[in-house]
Task: structure prediction
Amino acid sequence: MMSNPYDNLPDNAFWRKAVAEKHPLNIESIYKKKFNINNKHKIASAGSCFAQHIGRKLREHSFNYMDYEPAPKILAQQLRAGFGYEMYSARYGNIYTARQLIQLFERAFDEFTPKEDYWENDGAFFDPFRPTIEKGGYASLDELHICRRSHLKKVRQLFLDMDVFIFTLGLTEAWISKEDGAVFPLCPGTVAGSFDADKYEFHNFTYSEIVKDMLKFMNKLNQVNKGVKLILTVSPVPLTATATGNHVLTATTYSKSVLRAVAGELYQNHPRVDYYPSYELVTGAPMRSMFFEPNMRSVVPKGVEHVLSYFLQEHLPEKQQQTDQRDPESQQDEDVICDEVLLEAGLL
Amino acid sequence: MKVVLIGDSNIAAIRNAYVESEDARALHPDGVSEVSFLGMSNNSYHQPFYSNETSQVVVKRPDGSIVANIRAADDTVYGILLGTTTQRISNSGDWGVYAPVSLMNDEKIPVSDKQILEIIKYDLKFKLEFINEINSLGADFFLISSPPPRDSHPAFVKNERKSIYKYIDALYREIFINAMSELDLHFLDYPANVVKDDGFMIHEYNPVKADDYFHANSKYGFLQLMQVFRYVEAKYCLQT
Result:
């Protein structure tokens, strides 16, 4: 009998055995870590709003999760997210695009200072590059500058100290300053500022642009912190709105497909880049959209739990190896701050 | 008329003055038949410490035991000492690391005024709700200030901590006093002559216990009690 390359492949290589005949909550071997993370590794995270769940889970499980801008203890727990605390490893807010990530790095290392310094609305001052970090804006421009300086200093140290960086790719669409190419997390004029078509332009990043941006970021990071490892994920959360002129569903498919392909490319070609399949674990056909809220966009706590359980199976430090006993329903109040949702709610 | 003074641990200085000093007891305004003191110690005030029951607000300790039943009664006026005990916020260890933006130096992490405002509002939430409840009840009451900030805490060897303490204390008091003003409630501040030029309490009003950095002694309590008596006399006794 003739043999072929598929003969000796494991079960997880075959759809029938790995997916069709499996309970969707028990899909085995979907993630095999490329490198070890132990509880000594300093882990940082950033990305689109789904990434907040990852950081939260790592904290809960006693990983050495970095928080370089922790909240003052006297700021009540329920107020912290409103000021961008405990969302990520520093108070940069959601970083939706690869270009935004490079920009953060360059700002932290004084390589780039965007011309757009602030947005002002009704006497309050907003940081265009993290406009939702201070509810209602800063009281003065001085306050904004002082807080920004302190923030970027902490971000710089974060990049220097991290051993593992988990980055969730979220969007391909962004609004950019025509003047200097600075990219904004939110369209000017939504949460703050005012929209001016002469100053800002829409851009939908392509696969090659994002790969280039990510390689540029990895190169820059490696120059200041040799050996840092990267875990990429793709947010399973669909777009709230698209400015492409296309239907939001096709725009979402474009965006997620491109981001998934970028992550795949980097994973295949770089030994220090791992890919964690959050996207597949929520949006994959076997999940039958069961992890989405009725709006078919927000991910329910059980979905988050499901996604992160595979990560923990592979990476949970030995001493902490135990299942998370918390009832996912009890996590309902752990609101994830997705700025762009404000668009839909008409709150911007 | 009965005067019931109720409040957090700072009520002790006033109570001690009353208990220890015959002079204090002798200075009862005419028409005051009884002065009593109730402390609601061990409350964090970050959760309801009272319940609104039929025609009364019941003040409780964290263990559920009852401190007081506040009712609208013709013969009782309450003095509430509660809303200006700022130390949980103004003297938090956080200020060793953080600083309000206006008092920043390079070693500190800035905290915006809006965050500070939220922190204070959170600390005051149930205190203000409690005051609203007894106000809605129609009970006769006024507010009494906690002692002024003290500079004897070991953490205050650094001047920056003193500045932060004063800044937060002043902001906290301002928010509380404004809230009382909006409700048209009377607020009895601390006696003017108990503070030094720098705004901190004169050391002779420190408690005997050396490691008590937050309260005042009965000498201070006496001065505050006299203010209470003067207010009660002017408001209730001279009119009758």
In short: Residues 72 and 136 of chain B are 10 Å apart (CA to CA). The domain at 2-83+125-150+176-237 of chain B is CATH 3.40.50 (Rossmann fold).
